[in-house]
Amino acid sequence: MNLRQTQKEATRRRVLDAARELFETVGYDETTVREIATRAGVAVGSVFTSFAGKAEVLSQVMADRLEALYGELERVLPHLRGSTADRLTSIFALHYDFETRRTQLFLAHIAAAFNWRPGSPATPYGRNPRLRAMIRDCIEEGRRRGDVDAQADIDLAVDTLMAAYAWNYRLAAWEGASAEQMSALMERQITLITAGLAPGAVSWRSPEDAGR
After folding, report:
1. How many domains does the chain have?
2. Are residues 7 and 84 in the same domain?
3. Which domain holds residue 154?
4. Which of 41, 58, 164, 180 could tie 189 with a disulfide, CB 3.0–4.6 Å?
């Protein structure tokens, strides 16, 4: 990179570092772009040079944090053992352990999904293709192994699992629940969900296959 590109990247990193700390300590809704710029030591215009707005800043903060986690998960996923329920439990337990290090930041990420609009450059929770792909791959592997019905509606199962995972964070927000407590609840939810995916179950079949 030339000098100008290097300086632009340095500014971008300062903005992201400042935003991450403010979102966690002050709160996403309470943090303004001006406060991010002040904490980063840059002009407000410099923030908008790199990002369309605060939502995109949050999206990039989360993407940067999750890169290492997803890289590790993609490495270990082929080596997970046990049933589909066991492997899903391991995936979500790793996520809870990681995200509860900065619970308020992840709660902001979930909340931002409700304000997302078509055309926004931000990637809110629920639209992350890597997380969805990992869960989907785990369920499809279960289908190949025979503990998931061949006609199971996998997209519906992925949506339900991600919804349960996000909803459990209410316990962290309201009661200060630990990663272990949320993982234990998620394990019970996974057991219930995967029971509906088992061979012969009909509740999770896609609309096209439900009548067959």
Report:
1. 2
2. no
3. 54-210
4. 164
Q: Give one DSSP letter per residue of 97-146, joined into a string.
A: HHHGGGHHHHHHHHHHGGG--TT-S---TT--HHHHHHHHHHHHHHHHHT
pLDDT digits (tens, 9 = 90+) for 38-53: 999 999 999 998 898 8
As a whole number of angstroms, the distance between CA 199 and CA 178 comes to 34
Same domain, 89 and 27: no
Does 200 lie in the same domain as 134? yes
At which residue do the structure tokens 């979930």 appear?
110
74 touches 134 (CB < 8 A): yes
pLDDT at 74: 81
Residues 28 and 101 occupy one common structural domain: no
Q: What is the pLDDT of residue 130?
A: 84
Tokens matching residue 212: 């067959």
Q: How far apart are the first and last CA of the chain?
A: 59
Percent of the residues in the chain that have a pLDDT greater than 70, as a whole number: 94
Cα–Cα distances (Å) from 73 to 20, 80, 87, in that order, read 23, 10, 11
Whether 27 and 82 share a structural domain: no
Query: What is the model's pTM?
Result: 0.82
| Pair 107, 65 in one domain | yes
Residue 32 reports pLDDT greater than 90? yes
Same domain, 43 and 69: no
80 close to 36: Cβ distance less than 8 angstroms: no
> What pLDDT does residue 114 have?
81
